[in-house]
Specification:
The chain is an alpha/beta fold and 476 residues long. It is built from 16 helices and twelve strands.
Length: 476
Amino acid sequence: MKRNPNFKLQTSNIVLTLISGILLSLVFPKFNLWPLAWVALVPFFMALKNAKTWQSSALAGFLFGTVFFGIHLFWVISLFRFGGWWIVTGWVGLIIFQALFLAVFALSYYYLISNFKSLPAGRQGLISNFQFLIFPLLWTFIEWLRLQGPFGISAGAVGYSQAAFLPLIQIASFSSVYGVSFLVVLMNAAVAEVIADQKKWRILLGVLLLFLIAISYGVSVISHSSLVISHFPKLALIQPNIDQKDKMDYAQVFPVYEIQAKLTRQAAAENPDVIIWPETAVFAYLLRDPILWPRFQALINETKTCLVVGTPYHDSLRNKIYNSIVSFSNSGEILARFDKEHLVPFGEYLPFKPLLFPLLKGTGYFDQNYDPARFSEPFFVRDLKVAPAICFESTFPALIASRVGPDTAFILTLTNDAWFGASAAPYFHLNNGVFRAIENRKYFVQVGNTGISAVIDPYGRILKRSQLNKREIVIF
């Protein structure tokens, strides 16, 4: 029986796609083999170049996405102890949803190349040396698209893999993280182009030159940067390291509060200008609690220090519940309040609640939702204007940029990554902070319940950071 001549090619495409999916997953935390990012996509791009039909191209994209996101998003499984097998279901659903974007990427590439091949020979020759740009342009657009809407996530954006490559990622100051993604994917596309046709070696040479220019720019910027921070307030970041199960236990509200109060007293001995607690520091409406609120006011009077605290906030006039940050003066006066704008679906609210709540009510996590707010009023810490964010809001470049102005002293993110234990999620979260600092050329301060708490300078250098899952006071 005669073998189908296309069978071997199809099999090789599957192998190439699988290899690429695995390689790309290794460039992110916790593997952190970030140099691999510059070639990890080459096998996948070769598979797309070999695809003979739109169906095989789309399937290659979906298979690549399934493998890559299956590994990269495995940190979602760390939520299993909270949601049981529903978490596995959510993980699989998230993988499929994200893989569909890469199927669209592959399908779009196929149709663009098909249309190119249908052009007259003269026009084909004119632009043949530039068709490899389709890969980075499409990829960057898909990364941007994946971040849009209420279900948008930045996980898997290639640029974040280069967070440790500080000279290169300085281009994010004018191109954002997407510019870094574009350059990384451009290199992969150039390598794939030369493998397919060695006569096009000049393409790779040109991309290598662009790569060296980007690094030279970054080296120059960093070498001329200054670490003078005389006008920066002295901060004490409180990382209480409270297990998430304890945080959500009403019986533990007062012990959890006392842990943070004790750390605050210890931090006050260092004479900081500001002491900062993490997101939802206690599982109670701090400003309304008849027992905690007087204790908290007494703590401020005792320490004589400005405090910034993450707390749930109930707006009785609107009957809405917000995930908030409240800034207090050293006399206990409320200076400002920020209510979270971009909520975590299935974490802070349940999408399609009439449909899904009957299925998920047994988990006990969706009886009440947080309400989304809109950032409108300036947020002050002492007399400094600050760009606030809560949790995964720091993963949205445009959202943070919209809150930063010329007079912004620093970006402040309060978070609670205790949900994810020792998984890759807290490390990926910190990498986002590196980019937000560079993109806005502002100091970035992150305070987490279990970590990672850190201070990052406007050039992405981590000046101070805590260890994950350790009770600490970070003084900066």
